[in-house]
């Protein structure tokens, strides 16, 4: 009865940020690459930083400012 908002069925909880994961591997990956880890992958264009390279890749795909400086 502590008004917990995290009522999902994820048995693996991150002890740092409280995020829940259904698979232990995902939690371990979160702890290793996301939670409390310095974001080491930065976008050279907009200087945003990301914790994982695939997230940076996703960002580069999402925002087309990397491919061309076309329409403003
Ligand atoms: Zn965490
Ligand atoms: Zn960018």
Automatic annotation (TrEMBL):
Q: Which UniProt keywords apply?
A: Metal-binding, Zinc, Zinc-finger
GO MF, one annotated term? zinc ion binding
Look up keyword Zinc and say if it applies: yes
C2H2-type domain location, by residue? 12-39, 41-70
This protein's source sits in the domain of life called Eukaryota
| Any Pfam family matching the protein | zf-C2H2
Q: What is this protein called?
A: C2H2-type domain-containing protein
InterPro entries per the record? Znf_C2H2_sf, Znf_C2H2_type
């Amino acid at each position: 009865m502590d008004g917990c908002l995290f009522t999902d069925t994820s048995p693996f909880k991150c002890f740092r940020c409280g995020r829940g994961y259904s698979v232990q591997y995902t939690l371990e990956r979160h702890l290793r690459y996301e939670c409390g880890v310095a974001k080491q992958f930065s976008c050279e264009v907009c200087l945003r930083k990301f914790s994982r390279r695939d997230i940076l890749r996703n960002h580069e795909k999402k925002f087309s400012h990397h491919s061309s400086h076309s329409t403003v």
